[in-house]
Amino acid sequence: MFQNRAEALALALPAALFAAAVFIAPVVILLSDGFRAPGGGWTISAYTEFFSSSLNQAVFLRTLKLGVLVTIVAAVIGYAAAFAIVSLEPGKKGKVTGLIVLPLMISPVARTYAWIVILGRTGIVNQAFQALGISEAPLRILFSETAIFIGLLQLFLPLMIISLISALENMPKDAIPAARVLGANWFQVFWKVILPLTKEGVVIGGTLVFTGCLTAYITPAILGGSKVLMLETLLYQQVTVSNNFVAASVIALILIVMSFAANILLKRVATARNKTMRNTKGTAQ
């Protein structure tokens, strides 16, 4: 398309400069605040101080735990849903995929407030539990880790399903029938055929879901309240309530590192699994 590389770089330069001016530079300035010493120079005392607090440790572990749980459950449900959708006729597949995408077009605020109605003391869930005799009094579901987990799962599950649908559609159509003919059960088909061939969808979907759980503010703030804090809600409190931009910088860098680490870990796991399978095949031969 281009005569030389310089033409392509010249076209990309305005966008690169704009991104550097409005995104990269402010982020670098914000993150650098966490390493600045009060009297000048550089230090990591802000990070040691952050992790020395038992409250911050609990918030960090809670954020990591919920992010991992939501990602794993989204992958399990996403595989089942994506496999069912891919198996549909083309006309039905488009309609069902549209229904999967539809929640993404609704404001997260509206979707999260709907869970208050559903999970409240007089909500549908508590009414069903009392009608079935599971509990005599309304359960406290709101303002808990359970409520945040449900809200985040509902919020980001479509991203996982869409990623897996794309991966399954690119998988060879005869791969599953061939494995079944060779005597593999459904667990072996999934573990040794479907999962390796759709690893890119898992990596993309897992990164989107886990990163979304780390950066979502509205859902943890509404469903968790002020008592069940996550890193994103703690960051907001440090800026708006405490006016502590150093602590906010520390939390921001932690969130960025966790996001990149999740993507790298998923890629490493997928690559390691492929190497293990190739070595197993080579040994068998």
TrEMBL record:
Main location: membrane
Residue ranges constituting the ABC transmembrane type-1 domain according to the UniProt record: 60-266
Sequence intervals crossing the membrane: 66-86, 98-118, 147-168, 202-225, 245-266
Membrane disposition: Multi-pass membrane protein
Protein origin, superkingdom: Bacteria
Coiled coil: none
Keywords per UniProt: Cell membrane, Membrane, Transmembrane, Transmembrane helix, Transport
Location of this chain's protein in the cell: Cell membrane
A Pfam family this chain is assigned to: BPD_transp_1
UniProt family annotation: Belongs to the binding-protein-dependent transport system permease family. CysTW subfamily.
Protein name: Spermidine/putrescine transport system permease protein
